[in-house]
Task: inverse folding
């Protein structure tokens, strides 16, 4: 019963949005030729009917039958359409408010030639109807561009971090970071390959991958193993798990199947040549100097899973002059790292994707992500400790990016 009521409520809301927006469509198309106007109007309601059919399909069938990618694209299209319509609704509300004011004022003002009589319907503003249609088209166009172009518009971001205790033998070391691959979302293998090749041209000394190799299941990465296996660096490729890697967001027949999926994911890391750090560390030595790489399983503040054990990853790294931490969720930095481990010099995270939507112009940076995460993109410093939050290589949900392009990070460590 709850499912039926929720479905009914959703359909009523979508219908009301469509009926409201249709008034603008009628106003805008009233001067068009009969064939064009009919095509637009019938097309409008045809899409509504298809949307309702898809919603019923999702509610009472298996939406993954034709593949997760197809399901994602279909529901992304529906979201884009109705999200854009809401912008048009706001403009139409302005029209209805001014129509209402004029209608009420007609009762208190004497009638003048050319003015509507009291109680007569006041026509909708053609200008505001057109403005509503154009306003609705803008976010739709932006999100479409974000899929076609933004999803794989890889950008190299370079930062230099100065550390007082960095040994001379590691001075100038270049670290490449990837995060949030989400291989189950990709729709262009060629573009993904191009991103990896762009990254390798930077010739990093070390490569870090900070989690979320897949969306839900380990088999998502199978057809991309050959691409990510090309990631190589002189001092190694190190990785950790993210919240999506555990299968926590998928339905499993039993606990054994879920555990088997996670074992397969860890095996994928091994096949690709990633040194997966499961609450452990690796010590790099050069010229008698030591640098520690610590890696933990996912640990996120709030509702996210807390599999990570930083105390275990830290153990044995005490003598290293510099400690670098791989931890998927940036909320871990304020929650555990800074309060308890002041000698962890730089932490590397991802997770936020910058919400795949925002604005970055020069030093100005905005995204809805900042209302959820204190540290959501780029480099942060507190005292002598640093955190870098990668904007992500892939995407999830909405298969695109608007204003927050996918990121390939190169960080150089220098002696202060």
Result:
């Amino acid at each position: 019963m709850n499912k039926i009521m929720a479905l009914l409520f959703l359909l009523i809301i979508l219908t009301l949005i469509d009926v409201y927006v249709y008034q603008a469509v009628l106003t805008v198309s009233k001067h068009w030729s009969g064939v064009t106007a009919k095509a637009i109007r019938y097309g409008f309601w045809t899409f509504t009917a298809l949307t309702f059919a898809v919603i019923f399909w999702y509610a009472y069938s298996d939406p993954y039958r034709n593949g997760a990618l197809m399901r994602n694209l279909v529901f992304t299209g529906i979201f884009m359409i109705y999200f854009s319509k809401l912008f048009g609704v706001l403009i139409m509300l302005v029209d209805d408010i001014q129509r209402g004011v004029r209608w009420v004022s007609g009762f208190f003002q004497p009638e003048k030639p050319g003015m509507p009589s009291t109680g007569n319907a006041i026509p909708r503003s053609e200008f505001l109807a057109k403005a509503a249609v154009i306003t609705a088209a803008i976010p739709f166009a932006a999100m479409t561009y974000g899929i076609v172009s933004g999803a794989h518009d890889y950008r190299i971001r370079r930062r230099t971090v100065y550390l007082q205790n960095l040994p001379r033998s590691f001075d100038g070391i270049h670290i490449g970071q990837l995060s949030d691959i989400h291989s189950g979302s990709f729709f262009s293998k060629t573009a993904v390959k191009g991103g990896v090749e762009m990254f390798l041209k930077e010739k990093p000394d070390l490569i870090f991958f900070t989690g979320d190799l897949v969306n839900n299941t380990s088999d998502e990465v199978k057809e991309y193993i050959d691409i990510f296996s090309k990631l190589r660096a002189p001092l190694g490729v190190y990785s950790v798990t993210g919240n999506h890697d555990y299968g926590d967001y998928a339905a499993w027949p039993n606990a054994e199947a879920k555990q088997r999926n996670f074992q397969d994911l860890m095996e994928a890391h091994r096949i690709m040549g990633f040194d997966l750090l499961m609450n452990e560390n690796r010590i790099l030595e050069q010229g008698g100097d030591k640098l520690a790489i610590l890696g933990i399983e996912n640990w996120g503040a709030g509702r996210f899973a807390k599999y990570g054990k930083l105390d275990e990853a830290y153990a044995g790294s005490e003598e290293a002059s510099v400690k670098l931490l791989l931890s998927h969720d940036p909320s871990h930095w304020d929650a555990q790292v800074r309060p308890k481990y002041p000698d962890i010099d730089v932490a590397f995270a991802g997770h936020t994707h910058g919400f795949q939507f925002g604005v970055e112009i020069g030093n100005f940076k905005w995204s809805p992500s900042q209302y959820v995460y204190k540290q959501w993109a780029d480099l942060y410093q507190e005292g002598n400790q640093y955190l870098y939050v990668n904007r992500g290589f892939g995407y999830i949900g909405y298969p695109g990016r608007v204003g927050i392009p996918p990121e390939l990070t190169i960080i150089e460590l220098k002696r202060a």
